[in-house]
Amino acid sequence: MKKIVTFGEIMLRLGPPGFERFTQAHTFEVIYGGAEANVAISLAHFGESTDYVTRLPDNDLAEACLGSLRQHRVGTDHVLRGGDRLGIYFVEKGAAQRGSKVIYDRAGSSFAALEPGMIDWQAALAEAAWFHWSGITPALTPGAAAACREAITTARSLGLTISCDLNYRHALWKWGKSSAEVMPELVAMGEIVMGNPETVETMFGITAPDPAGDPVEQTRLVAEQLAARCPNLTTIAFTARESHSASHNTWSATLWQAGHFYSGPSYDLTPIIDRVGGGDAFTAGLIYGLRRKPDEPTYALRFATAAACLKHTIPGDSNLVTVAEVEHLMSGDGSGRISR
Amino acid sequence: MKKIVTFGEIMLRLGPPGFERFTQAHTFEVIYGGAEANVAISLAHFGESTDYVTRLPDNDLAEACLGSLRQHRVGTDHVLRGGDRLGIYFVEKGAAQRGSKVIYDRAGSSFAALEPGMIDWQAALAEAAWFHWSGITPALTPGAAAACREAITTARSLGLTISCDLNYRHALWKWGKSSAEVMPELVAMGEIVMGNPETVETMFGITAPDPAGDPVEQTRLVAEQLAARCPNLTTIAFTARESHSASHNTWSATLWQAGHFYSGPSYDLTPIIDRVGGGDAFTAGLIYGLRRKPDEPTYALRFATAAACLKHTIPGDSNLVTVAEVEHLMSGDGSGRISR
Amino acid sequence: MKKIVTFGEIMLRLGPPGFERFTQAHTFEVIYGGAEANVAISLAHFGESTDYVTRLPDNDLAEACLGSLRQHRVGTDHVLRGGDRLGIYFVEKGAAQRGSKVIYDRAGSSFAALEPGMIDWQAALAEAAWFHWSGITPALTPGAAAACREAITTARSLGLTISCDLNYRHALWKWGKSSAEVMPELVAMGEIVMGNPETVETMFGITAPDPAGDPVEQTRLVAEQLAARCPNLTTIAFTARESHSASHNTWSATLWQAGHFYSGPSYDLTPIIDRVGGGDAFTAGLIYGLRRKPDEPTYALRFATAAACLKHTIPGDSNLVTVAEVEHLMSGDGSGRISR
Amino acid sequence: MKKIVTFGEIMLRLGPPGFERFTQAHTFEVIYGGAEANVAISLAHFGESTDYVTRLPDNDLAEACLGSLRQHRVGTDHVLRGGDRLGIYFVEKGAAQRGSKVIYDRAGSSFAALEPGMIDWQAALAEAAWFHWSGITPALTPGAAAACREAITTARSLGLTISCDLNYRHALWKWGKSSAEVMPELVAMGEIVMGNPETVETMFGITAPDPAGDPVEQTRLVAEQLAARCPNLTTIAFTARESHSASHNTWSATLWQAGHFYSGPSYDLTPIIDRVGGGDAFTAGLIYGLRRKPDEPTYALRFATAAACLKHTIPGDSNLVTVAEVEHLMSGDGSGRISR
Amino acid sequence: MKKIVTFGEIMLRLGPPGFERFTQAHTFEVIYGGAEANVAISLAHFGESTDYVTRLPDNDLAEACLGSLRQHRVGTDHVLRGGDRLGIYFVEKGAAQRGSKVIYDRAGSSFAALEPGMIDWQAALAEAAWFHWSGITPALTPGAAAACREAITTARSLGLTISCDLNYRHALWKWGKSSAEVMPELVAMGEIVMGNPETVETMFGITAPDPAGDPVEQTRLVAEQLAARCPNLTTIAFTARESHSASHNTWSATLWQAGHFYSGPSYDLTPIIDRVGGGDAFTAGLIYGLRRKPDEPTYALRFATAAACLKHTIPGDSNLVTVAEVEHLMSGDGSGRISR
Amino acid sequence: MKKIVTFGEIMLRLGPPGFERFTQAHTFEVIYGGAEANVAISLAHFGESTDYVTRLPDNDLAEACLGSLRQHRVGTDHVLRGGDRLGIYFVEKGAAQRGSKVIYDRAGSSFAALEPGMIDWQAALAEAAWFHWSGITPALTPGAAAACREAITTARSLGLTISCDLNYRHALWKWGKSSAEVMPELVAMGEIVMGNPETVETMFGITAPDPAGDPVEQTRLVAEQLAARCPNLTTIAFTARESHSASHNTWSATLWQAGHFYSGPSYDLTPIIDRVGGGDAFTAGLIYGLRRKPDEPTYALRFATAAACLKHTIPGDSNLVTVAEVEHLMSGDGSGRISR
Label partner for A257 (CA 20 to 30 A): which of A52, C237, D313, F203? Predict the structure, then answer.
């Protein structure tokens, strides 16, 4: 099959080991991650051919970052080098009633300084059939937003399938325009969108008609409105994370496809080893499912949900699981027995 | 606001990483902690100005210990140097049905060899408004008990508010007098006491009138009797830890103040990252609450209980949380969501 | 009391720290373990005099392995040296819905190359009263199976009590004969057997008469049939592990002895620190109980079950707990309170 | 004695453990350091009362940084909070023929955004007798240069002794003016300067008259010219590091004071544990010596040189040694015998 | 430029951290390495396009191994999967008078079970211009030797340049034929050979005519004889390691090319961080130099020697240095100064 | 051969990893060591049958300590349990000009509280041919000194060979008598003594007649005088450590035996990995040599010196080397080549 290209910012993730607070740390674990890179890595573990496009500085940290992508079979031939620095984010893992804490230090990164025309999108997408981006990129700077628009436009002109994870981060979107001003046009150019009703309200102003009504039905109605607003959309996936504590969440998802609406299984996540990247694991699972069984939307929904569940058991940003492992959980076996 | 001075023994805490048993350990984690130092550190994180008074030997381990206190904004100007050694305690963390294990190696420490007259209490308390001690100090040696009495007497003569955590440790109190012979007089000189009904029975001979009666009401009656016995007391706080397993406890507290009795919230602690210092975190929270909102006793009770809850999620002895973090949990949000 | 001799293969166990996957690991924790060695180590911690018999190569890894056995008071005087390599197994610890994963790399080991006549069983068993083996040894190679038979025969001729943990591993038994062809004769020479109904079905073809019937009663009936098939057996212990997730299991056991059938307590294991060796801990507990209180079969059953429960809280293969700790849990105190 | 105030940027220092390259690292060691903070910490270990002035953001990394300063007895009451980020530098330690490598990521830091008027220098210097700064601060941004000028001017007006470490870093000085345009005026306002002849050439255009002549004499002549250019200068210290390999350096220094010129001892540094902060350790030693024995310039020179030597044996940026340890080495005992 | 393909066995390298002995280790560092893989990785760091051909089992350790190759930009598209196990070698690092110790556990590996016909050499070499192998492969098993012969023959038929590192390991060559019976024919098919005079004597029976004569001249005469024996050879490189201690070696090399003989620089290696892979680093440097400056044999010799020198400063098997770093050392700067 | 029994105090050794100072440490490495235990462990690695006698408390740290002895094949059947605590010592490793630092925390230990009559020496020495003690034991307390005298007397009455390492520690000997009052009588009861001329002067008042004379000759004359004073002595070994830096020492030794005097080889120790236990390694080597080749005193001297040399390359207190490894170095091969 042709390639899946994902595009976004990958950062150096640093954080204390175990459950130490930032002020207790004498070492930081070193990981490289970012929403769209996590999707690419997960897809590569599912056997898909993937390429990741970003912009990184010319230093050894960026080399280490590239090595990490290649290690997971993600192609890096179209990564642009230049700019001043690698974005960083610091993660302190929470437990029980104490939530995890993230400090972003991504301003001034090589990626944030991206401008249209820098990346040769014709070349980067030449062997691809699918293009994936997320709402984080246009949130960063006008240049990144414009470069994202350029990528989407090129992908569309080349006939690629386009998916977007809305990924709303309130702390971003500081450059002058709101997500509501930027995202609808970009999202409307693609076929697939992942998100949740709250984000749809923020970005599209779409609300559930009866907040007191049946939650699943209200979610369906939000999806219907979004589909009406963006006629090019064929698939809308909404995830729902219920947070009982930092160590115990419940995870489920719904899928709207071509007028039909499906509700997936719910997983009890406890103990959570690392919740970063749970949504990216879902996205990767969904893309895999939609590509491999396009006529079986519930397969994609169930595969994505099981994939997201497994991600929570794995340290780091990336969902290092195989299709067989996801399907084993989909089959109902979440017993965690030893595989010898 | 004027300073809070806490007084007691700080020790070198050593223990295997993770859930290794003592006999499996090839490294020990190095922490410095003790009940009253933990209270001071927690108060400093709440923004209070604190000083810690103790006696430490003249060696590099004591230097490291002092550095650790200063790092957490605790004043050490009145720490006395001298004596033979730093007390040590070894902690093996338990899990599920296997309880944690503590080996004390504190005999002969610089603090245990304390005698009245060694510390210049007039100077040490000159800038303070509050003095906090615990039942561990008089349990150690006759000299430590006498020095503790000297401190309390001076604090009283200077008009400081005095609080005491009863902190009964059966393995101590080996020097000739029992806690029942020593503690009542010392406690009666202060205004605030933290403990639990079992300790009150041991130290004061006060029992709940009807063991089969409603537990909260019985606790109230114990507090009433203790208040009657020590007329100077204005505030009595009782904590209750229910231990389901080493990894799962339930924690709650009650507060008697000036004839009124309040019952606080209950927190489910699971998984427990480190339970050492839970009571000290409660004590610090109570002192903070009583100082900041003296007319709102339930604030102190709820703040202290939420603080103790958060302590169980943090490795080490000390409750490294801010007022904002405690109040976030008090507000009812124990969902452990990521703070970005 | 006279010695307990256990016989089998001990291997180098390697695995990533924490919950890392194999592909994430940059260090492996180094442990030496194997079913029968685990039993010996646990018995030594219970105060029994034990000897372990195996075959190890002449290299420093084998020296480290021997040192580990001696450290736990297990005698190694009859360990044979020779052959090519130490068997290895790699363990990736799972969590929640992701199960643990084991990669065996034991082919060609010094033990697998064992042949009858190599070990001087008369000498090895001279001071022993009890011989323990497991179904892993005859599963390896024809030579190991024959050596196992030789050991059992000698033990019987010397009047030792013989116990066997059936320990069926599907991935083994590749050398030409099935477990059903080999095990029944060997098991029948002993007095005690540990296992579960599924393994009894595989090895003996014995099934529960009414799969839809009461599970405990059905288990009893399987034990009755097995006892009838092997008249020398006096004791049959069946363990039952219910796996809710990799982090949460329920564990219980039943015991058939001389026509009587006993059902033991059930323990909720959560969180599981290391589940490897749970069955070996049970076996060691059972042997200890049967030796110390031969007239009180429920003691052995309850002791073994509580021992297996505690094992799940301890990193590594071996159950490093004392009789006092097991009896504390048997007494009903699984509260995990701190022991100071 | 009155306080020593040092002023500059402290950063988060991250680097692989041992001799790993950046591309091999899975953990980074976490240290907080910067030239002027290192000087303050070293002086505090010598028993001097010190305060450190800088600007840090409002986040937990900055809290950890402040804790690290306080731990070493450095006062932080005048640290300004605000701005966007904590500067970072990454250090890869070299060995033998492979040199260490540093990646700076300090652009956009809270300190770089400093402007005159932000810091209340009257308050910050109120209790001080000595002010120390380095050539790194004016190299950063126009604002930092202006704030540095403001600090020096205020210090002078308050009658403080002012010392400057020229600290030329070619990679900095990118904001429009060269060091030669900025530094001479600032240096001339102080009394003490540390540096080396190469830097004096860069900043002041002063060269040794006879490059082929006796090196010590040429160094003296450079000092004489610098003293003539800056009549306020009383003391000029030049350090000389000869680098045989990353693991083996030779270190020596010379001192010009009021027309006299002194040459100090030379130390063979091998193996070097951490060379970062060697110059800062020299500076701290020099300040200590000049303050404590103002009439004995060779004491200051020898103390500073021995202090710098010891720094190379200590991991991290800071010279964690006592006066007694430095004087022990000054006395000629570099034998490294065990102190029991 | 076209690809360089290297072929051989890559293994899991395990060893204690620091200078612990095997019997002290509780963790092993995990690295993947092997002579020919090390060459490929080093060449990839020099910017060459490389492919590595081997045979690996179908398990997660092999996945981790492949990830490690890809991380370093080595192509793995022609790695064959199958067989039973990944070879392992254990390394204990020595210091001073205590030498390092290696335990090989490679028997029965997937690579050792290689047979001619398994690998599609036409495909594997299709895009290559250079093929590199070493004397380790034919030493393993008859099948590996035959597969190696097949590879060389194919490479020759395709017109590739062929290089061989003689790499004599006495502990191998146990399968029936000696290196002298196997190697000469294989070596003679190539153009370039790396080794040392001792190995040439073992494999070719060629000795220096006058052992008491000038060593460089004698080395030249050995090269001359070898060239005469293998007329296809254009280049012979001999390395010389003088071992003063495990921490201090001297390294130099000579090169015979088309009748000319060159002697390269000598490097003092101290302290040695990791000496494994020093020869492979030389080989990679030589190949790089010969390809990039075919008309300047002393460039290749000096580049290779400097590369080997730098390898000794880097933990692990692989020489993670760039061309710029090697050329910096070639330029004479071995001072190990900080690069900022 | 019959057993060697060593007697003394074993302690918990704690220290920072690498070259961290005490004030930087967040973990301590955990080792169990003591002069006489180190001798026993080294002898066990040489294949000797050894037993270690001491007194340890009844806690898990003592269990871990016993496990460590058994792991190294040292018999612990006659270790007495009781008393209050395990002695501790803290070790900070130095480098270059910074010496290592030791903090002792051994007062009040179970061993220090030893009294005559506690240990059943008849039983403890029943199977022994050799008894070894050191000057540390009588230095501790009157009780320990008396118990040591009891042990020596019993050993003598049983006809054992008795060796003593004088092991003078100035910081000990605080209980009222000086070493000069206690040691001569005890030493005189044995046959073998290890030490150095400085200690002989302190304990026996014996000085070299001509301090300006040839050092070896003067050492011989000291030995002669000591032999004259203690007519029972047959063998006197003097070690000489020249300390160039904490990382580089030179080590040599001399031996007086029955009127003859031998001077051994000298080893350059660089880099030193861990110098603790160097003298104990020498002692163990000497005892081994004297037992195995009683007629070849230079063998013992050379074996002991080479053993001490190797100890400096091994982390921890104990010399974990085999006879083959020592003899390899004795043979002149200190090249540190890899052993594959």
Answer: A52
In B, which residues are within 8 Å of A97 by CB distance? 267, 309-310, 313, 329, 334, 336
Measured in angstroms, the CA of A125 and the nearest CA of chain D are apart by 29
Q: Measure C265 CA to nearest chain A CA, in Å.
A: 22
Q: How far apart are CA E62 and CA E59, in angstroms?
A: 5
Nearest-CA distance D136 → chain E (Å): 14
Tokens of C197: 């109904």
Cβ-nearest to A270 among C96, C170, C243: C96
- Contact assessment for residue E47 and residue E303, using Cβ atoms and an 8 Å cutoff: no
Q: Which of C263, C260, C270, C252 is nearest to C306 (CA)?
A: C252
Sign of the CA dihedral running E12, E17, E19, E24: negative
Confidence at residue A86, expressed as pLDDT on a 0 to 100 scale: 98
Residue B185 CB neighbours (<10 A): 11
Q: Which of F97, F168, F275 to mutate to test the interface with D (most CBs of D within 10 A)?
A: F97
Task: Give me Rg for the CA atoms of chain B.
Answer: 19
Asked if D339's CB is within 8 angstroms of F99's CB, the reply is: yes
Mutation target to probe the F interface, by most F beta carbons within 10 A, among E98, E104, E251 is: E98
Q: Which of F272, F273, F337 sits opposite E99 (nearest CB)?
A: F337
Residue E102 has pLDDT above 90, yes or no: yes
Domain boundaries, chain E: 3-330
User: Tens digit of pLDDT for each residue in C168-194?
Assistant: 999 999 999 999 999 999 999 999 999
The string of pLDDT tens digits covering residues F247-261 is 999 999 999 999 999
Out of A313, A320, A339, whose CB is closest to C97? A313
Q: Do B68 and D71 touch (CB under 8 A)?
A: yes
F251 interaction partners in chain D (CB closer than 8 Å): none
Low-confidence residues in chain C, pLDDT < 50: none
CATH classification for the domain delimited by E3-330, as one of 3.40.190.10, 3.40.50.2300, 3.40.190.120, 3.40.1190.20: 3.40.1190.20
For residue D279, the one-letter residue type is: G
Our CA angle for A255, A258, A262, nearest 5°, is: 25
Neighbours of A258 (CB within 10 A): 9
Residues of C within 8 A of F67 (CB-CB) are 71-73
Which of the four pLDDT bands, split at 50, 70 and 90, describes residue D261? very high
Residue in the block written with tokens 């350090």 = D239
CB contact under 8 A, F71 and C67: yes
Contacts of A261 (CB under 8 A, 6+ apart): A220, A223, A254, A255
Tokens 């003490």 sit on residue: D192
Place of tokens 């030389």: E282
Q: Which CATH number applies to C35-54+121-330: 3.40.1190.20, 3.40.50.720, 1.25.40.10, 3.60.150.10? A: 3.40.1190.20
- Decide the pairing of beta strands E88-92 and E101-105: antiparallel
Cross-chain residue pair A70–E68, CB shorter than 8 Å: no
Question: What local confidence, expressed as pLDDT, does residue A230 receive?
Answer: 98
The confidence score (pLDDT) of residue D340 equals 83
